[in-house]
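Exercise 7b. Backbone tokens:
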């Protein structure tokens, strides 16, 4: 609704003498409000860069206020400094001179004219918005999805002091399907001395590639095992950058800092990086470090028996994929699962319920739908239910002749939850210290209250420790974070006492019975624009109450 403003100018904004509100400060902004919503109206004149106020009619005069283009005032004029006038709203002390820009002549001492300033934003301390609350990063259409697979990955026992990339197939029967535009990370659910993960990527559709690194002096025997694979689907948290890292010396680590464009790389987020190719002997910490807004540090390492003496230079001009994970609150009650259907033979004209284990489901969950990839004559799925925590019952009906549903099918199931878990929780915790002997790795555990079993984690080490690199992280038990550190040097290195940023992906399960050629998965969507609108509204309300412009607690 139109607002007459301070006597002179009609404005459409009730908290500004024309124009829009300001967000001031660093990344994310600091809420700014106006000491006087309408600036000031006064009589005066200008000569060169001097403004003389002869009568204050209304409002408050402040340094930084723009002058309204009336009475011949030039565009982009503003008050830059006090002179004999003290500013403010006192009709006596506000009179006098002020410095303005640009130089101009408006009115005279004998014939002063009506002039006006616009209100200026005054930053209020204590209401800073975090980077992840920056509304400029998202729009109302911004949404994305996080998918968790429990995959029986192929592993290998790499030769001593080298790296090996191994691929595993996420079956095309899984509807969620790994996409090459996604960013992935892996939680290896066991730890082995001298052995860790030094990178991962989606090398092709539905194909996960993991780089394993062995820093020890002998080969390591490994076995196929189930890993948590987290896929951040292309969306508002995902971005890319073309990088040309410098040479990495042998048997040590080096953190290199890169500039990332866009709005996702912000302090307080946990960064995941996927390098698009594998190079012999070269690996990196996939949990990158946000050094500053739009700056990220990646720690590279090279292991070798000595055949390479000049180090390894990562391939130039490659497109790296990044995901920056902030706190993500739950706004959608629906989870999408892909599960192995436990199908039983059915007899004619009857129904049969078959059950299958789906870790993470609750007795209070409601099964709202199924998608079966094939059609069976006479037999169909009619309904489903959670028969017990972690168990889904699937009801098959056979109308005519006896039938056996297709075996080894992956079913897609929609489940609604009364109180869904947040897709991602951010913890800041001081992790336990430990000495890591030369040319080996050590897993160190720390109590982090709130971590749930069967969830996944990504961790950001807040500083670079030369020779030391993170090669694994997992939730080893309820409220317990386990981080694996690898020492590339020949002398012991102490893990420093530091506060880490931890992203806990709270998708649980869904199963521990996947085969090598397929995967179980659970997917949850997130809505950062909705979340950040609510956060900014709360911060704005707090500031308005503190300024006396709104009542409430």
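Sequence design result:
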């Amino acid at each position: 609704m139109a607002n007459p403003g301070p006597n002179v100018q009609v404005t459409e904004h009730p908290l500004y003498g024309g124009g829009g509100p300001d967000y001031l400060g660093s990344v994310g902004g600091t809420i700014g409000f106006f000491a006087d919503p309408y600036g000031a109206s006064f009589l005066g004149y200008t000569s060169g860069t001097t403004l003389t106020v002869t009568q204050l009619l209304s409002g408050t005069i402040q340094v930084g206020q723009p002058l309204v283009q009336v009475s011949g005032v030039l565009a982009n004029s503003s008050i830059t400094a006090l002179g004999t006038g003290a500013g403010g709203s006192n009709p006596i002390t506000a009179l006098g001179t002020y410095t303005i820009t640009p130089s101009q002549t408006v009115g005279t001492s004998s014939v002063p004219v009506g002039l006006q300033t616009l209100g200026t934003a005054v930053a209020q301390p204590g209401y800073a918005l975090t980077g992840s609350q920056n509304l400029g990063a998202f729009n109302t259409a911004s949404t994305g999805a996080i998918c968790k697979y429990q995959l029986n990955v192929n592993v290998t026992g790499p030769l001593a002091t080298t790296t090996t990339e191994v691929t595993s197939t996420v079956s095309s029967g899984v509807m969620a399907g790994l996409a090459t535009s996604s960013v992935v990370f892996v939680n290896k659910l066991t730890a082995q001395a001298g052995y860790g993960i030094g990178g991962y990527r989606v090398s092709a559709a539905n194909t996960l590639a993991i780089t394993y690194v062995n820093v020890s002096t002998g080969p390591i025997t490994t076995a196929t095992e189930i890993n948590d694979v987290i896929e951040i689907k292309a969306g508002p948290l995902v971005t890319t950058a073309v990088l040309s890292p410098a040479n990495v010396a042998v048997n040590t680590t080096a953190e290199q800092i890169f500039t990332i464009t866009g709005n996702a790389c912000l302090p307080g987020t946990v960064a995941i990086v996927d390098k698009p190719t594998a190079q012999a002997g070269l690996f990196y910490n996939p949990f990158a470090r946000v050094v500053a807004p739009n700056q990220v540090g990646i720690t590279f390492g090279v292991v070798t028996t000595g055949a390479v003496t000049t180090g390894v230079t990562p391939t130039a001009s490659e497109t790296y994929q990044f995901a920056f994970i902030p706190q993500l609150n739950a706004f959608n009650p629906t989870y999408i699962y892909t599960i192995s259907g436990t199908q039983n033979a059915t007899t004619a004209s009857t129904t049969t319920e078959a059950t299958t284990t789906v870790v993470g489901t609750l007795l209070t969950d409601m099964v709202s739908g199924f998608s079966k990839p094939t059609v069976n004559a006479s037999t169909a799925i009619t309904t489903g239910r959670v028969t017990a925590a972690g168990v889904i019952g699937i009801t098959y009906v056979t109308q005519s002749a006896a039938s056996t549903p297709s075996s080894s099918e992956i079913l897609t199931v929609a489940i609604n939850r009364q109180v869904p878990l947040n897709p991602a929780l951010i913890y800041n915790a001081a992790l336990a210290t430990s000495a890591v002997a030369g040319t080996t790795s050590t897993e160190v555990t720390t109590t982090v209250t709130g971590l749930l079993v069967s969830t996944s984690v990504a961790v950001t080490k807040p500083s670079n420790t030369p020779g030391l690199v993170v090669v694994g992280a997992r939730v080893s038990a309820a409220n317990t974070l386990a981080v694996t550190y690898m020492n590339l040097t020949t002398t012991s290195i102490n893990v420093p006492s530091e506060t880490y940023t931890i992203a806990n992906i709270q998708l649980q399960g869904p199963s521990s019975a996947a085969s090598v050629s397929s995967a179980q998965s659970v997917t949850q969507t997130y809505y950062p624009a909705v979340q950040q609108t609510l956060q900014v509204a709360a911060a704005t309300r707090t500031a308005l109450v503190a300024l006396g412009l709104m009542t409430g607690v």
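Instructor comment: Residues 528-546 form the longest helix (19 residues). The two ends are 28 Å apart (CA to CA).
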